[in-house]
## 1
Amino acid sequence: MKISEIMSKNPRSVSPDTSVSEAAQVMKEEDVGLVPVVERVGGAETRGRLVGVVTDRDIAIRAVAEGRATDAPVSEIMSGGVKTCSPNDTVEAAMELMGREQVRRIPIVDERGSLVGVVAQADVVRMQGKDKQAEKVVEKISQPGGSHQT
């Protein structure tokens, strides 16, 4: 099965100069724990090139705990160098990447690096049902450490 079949398409995103409080508001409105950070070329209607992600954990640890102002740009707290998948990759490839990187969400980008979706751990588990491989990935993701932790 391809990632395009289970991903959340066209997720809301923010730009690097969006304030931390605005990013938190997007998380609240969308009921998500990760917001992709994109550079838009050609205006707001154009899909943007993924440059990072900001998570609820980034806000808690890198902003609040470090005493940053909520009007600070997300570029100061976001995680860069984020691993991604393509919509044509297999769900198994996404599961393997989630386990290896110990992350619960993977941004999905097209061949130009433009954000087109997000796959979450919950999407994979719903798709896999009681599959043992999905259980192993969730177990591996949940171990301490991982790429997006400070």
## 2
Amino acid sequence: MAVKLTTSDDDLDEAHEINVTPFIDVMLVLLIIFMVAAPLSTVDVNVDLPASTAQPSQRPDKPIFVTIKPDLTLSVGDAQVSQDGLAAALDAASGGDKNQRIFLRGDKTIAYGSVMDMMNLLRKAGYLKIALVGLDAGQAPPSGTPASSAP
């Protein structure tokens, strides 16, 4: 026979419910922090685009280079072309294959808008695979060396 020696009226029933209010509070605070921090992380910064530390990707056997010279003249490979004749020159160089990658290189002194205009011309001609060519940051030529001598 079992006897209960202590009696207490303070028996608490176990609560099988999870209080999610603190969890919701923490999530709302994090949401507010990210909403405030996201616009601050996109700040206008002066950058020097021609040099890159990225690992060079595989080059095709015969790449097609489109070059924008300092005087804004264009060349496909070694042949100088006009903006109107760019699509025809690219079709001739690629054999009509619009899936071939076009390597775009521009002089360091040209405006960024000129590069974007060239990319728009390439897209308009149907060439959507465009790679920007830059110098390796460790091998950048001194300032006075022409950028056209680099690959």
## 3
Amino acid sequence: MIKGIGHIALKVEDMERSLHFYCDVLQFTKAFEIHDDQDNPWIVYVKAGPGQFIELFYGGKNKPETTENQIGVDHLCLEVTSIEEIASHLKNNDIKLDVEPKKAKDSNYQCWAKDPDGNRIEFMQIMQDSPQSQWYE
């Protein structure tokens, strides 16, 4: 039946700025684009892992003033091999960390930043003693 999560879809205000962040800074790959029925750019797919994508939709305009207690998507979590390495890489690319690397209550290490549209991104290093590690196949 269900195999897994295929993608997260985000509306973006400035596609080039978003592609720079996701492809140049985070080093994901721009996979392909889809155009609408009038052949206008509509969606850009960014490959985040095997069978995993971030869909970037053109046309984002209305950014909420705050996301506190907002219903809906809270954040995107990206698994990393080294929390210190990703934190350093983000800072070296002028990406401000909202939360510096730290150990979370689930025993994993995390740091936090935002994409160009203000979407919160958690970077997580899974540790062997975490509850998540028990579910890896």
